[in-house]
Specification:
Keywords: Nucleotidyltransferase, RNA-binding, rRNA processing, Transferase, tRNA processing, tRNA-binding. GO terms for molecular function: 3'-5'-RNA exonuclease activity; tRNA binding; tRNA nucleotidyltransferase activity. Belongs to the RNase PH family. It holds the Pfam family RNase_PH. The protein has 237 residues and is of the alpha+beta class. The chain has a single domain, classed as 2-Layer Sandwich (Ribosomal Protein S5, domain 2), CATH 3.30.230.70. 28% of the residues lie in helices and 29% in strands. Strands 1-2-3-5-4 form a 5-stranded mixed beta sheet. Strands 7-6-8-9 form a 4-stranded antiparallel beta sheet, sandwiched between helices. Helix 1 links the parallel strand 4 and strand 5. The termini are far apart. 43% of the residues are buried. The mean pLDDT is 95.
Length: 237
């Protein structure tokens, strides 16, 4: 039995709340159970220098965890002078995931910066961030279209993410922290609304996992991401 009493293929309760940041062009507060992430999308008039003259825009992301997002206070990374390796890896993942479903030339030479701030962490912060960031990006593009900054919707598809793993010998979907910290295998899947795979991160913490287990984790992930994409559709309707 899972600590939350959920079935192996059951998600935690997921919510997506739009327009939670007054000044951002797009924003979403996403919750996966007790994990809460604030995602904002900001329009910047200039893209990165290395894209100047290309006619193509860019979507980038930053990720951070507030000091009391976890059981004990963590030091703000700004005080150490640079983000940790974990932070850099996650924010690059978020950026790659969003760019995979964005028509960058349709933005023009502008940049959308996505900020994902973890208010409370209970496992799956990166997957929650990607899922909520898509909503914030969608609303930023809607804001731009309403003001004739762009003429078409640059989003080609939905993108969402979920974790899966092997916990006490059982393959489970959407791990909370107590499962994640004790899992034999931990994997994150990023997929589009059409079912395309954007990225898979999988690690055996104890015994290596088999191909059969990997395919079962993929099956679980597809089911979870289908639920998340449907929630995204309902949220922006």
């Amino acid at each position: 039995m899972r600590p939350s009493k959920r079935a192996p293929d059951a998600m935690r309760k997921v919510t997506l709340e739009r327009a939670v940041a007054r000044y951002a062009e797009g924003s979403c507060l996403v919750t996966f159970g007790e994990t809460k992430v604030l995602c904002t999308a900001s329009l910047e008039e200039r893209g990165p220098p290395w894209l100047r003259g290309s006619g193509k825009g860019w979507v980038t992301a930053e990720y951070s965890m507030l000091p009391r997002a976890t059981h004990e206070r963590t030091r703000r990374e700004v005080n150490s002078g640079k983000p940790s390796g974990r932070t850099q890896e996650i924010q690059r993942l978020i950026g790659r995931s969003l760019r995979a479903v964005t028509n960058l030339p349709a933005i023009g030479e502008k940049q959308i910066s996505i900020d994902c701030d973890v208010l409370q962490a209970d496992g799956g912060t990166r997957t929650a961030a990607i899922t909520g960031a898509w909503v914030a990006l969608h609303d930023c593009f809607s804001w731009m279209r309403q003001r004739s900054i762009i003429s078409v919707d640059p989003l080609r598809d939905h993108v969402a993410a979920v974790s899966c793993g092997v916990y006490k010998g059982t393959l489970v979907l959407d791990l909370e922290y107590v499962e994640d910290s004790a899992a034999d295998t931990d994997a994150n899947f990023v997929m589009t609304g059409k079912g395309g795979i954007v990225e898979v991160q999988g690690t055996a913490e104890a015994e290596p996992f088999s191909e059969e287990q990997f395919l079962e984790l993929l099956r679980l992930a597809r089911g979870g991401i289908a639920e998340l994409v449907e929630l995204q559709k309902q949220t922006i309707a």
